[in-house]
Design a protein that fits this description.
By secondary structure, this protein is of the alpha+beta class. The chain is built from 10 helices and 11 strands.
Amino acid sequence: MDSLGKQLRTLKWRYLDNFGPTVAYRSAAPALAGEPARALAELSRNGIAVTSSRALFGSDSLYEELAAAVVESEQREEARIAKARADAENTESHKGYILNLLGDCPVLDPGDIHVRFALQRPVLEIVNAYFGMYTRLRYYNVWHTFATRAPARDSQLWHRDPEDQYVLKMFVYLSDVDEDAGPFIYAAGSHPKTTLHREPASFHRKGDARRSDDRQIAAVIPPDRWVQATGGRGTIILADTRGFHKGGLARERDRIMYLCMFTSQASKCGDFFLRTASGSAPPDKERAFALGWRGSRRRAAT
């Protein structure tokens, strides 16, 4: 019954809650080729695909523009970074080891590099094809993760993201990330497109969040299925974070990483940015839909 219930929920989500975006996408879905096609196949199979800015986009132009903008932000926010670093060991602070460089709720500006990077055509092609529908950009930011000696907590423990049936995130390394700099780690095959979607027998709990340690996850998904996504600057990770994942346990070096998140139109999570009443819709359907440009000017939910 549980399997049948899951199938019924998926059908409702796709053909009732997201009927319009599904039909519209299928009538105009592009054929993917090259690196986007390879990444999509890997993502669908494992729930995670690792690539690079040069491989995915054929050029590092927007990556270098993004990197330069982050360097400027780091310099401008030097005092705030120093204060956050001093508090990073505080285990009572939720995700105190991470600083949102753009603030907790940035104001959406379609011309800003942090938005333009998320809406590049290869990214939207992969995301929309994975969902099988037009999708919405819900979140973007730059995380500065501090190296600490505190015990693993919050998103440093295994968990699933709750925002939607599928939750697709893109992580872009803006610093070299080895195993001591808090790499993203994913349990391949634990995403909703496979049958390997079981929960561990027990969890660490904090509020409503469920978190699991390595021993608990190993009982469900063997360690040889865990992907530790280390890589240099420009490494890109695409992951359905409905699958089990963790990251940010930096011990020796800080990690600087851009990320953005896409969900379906029907997600109840809302947008993690603020909208203004100004601006015009992008000229193409994919970007316009991703930005929610359908007459809505509501302020984002946080």
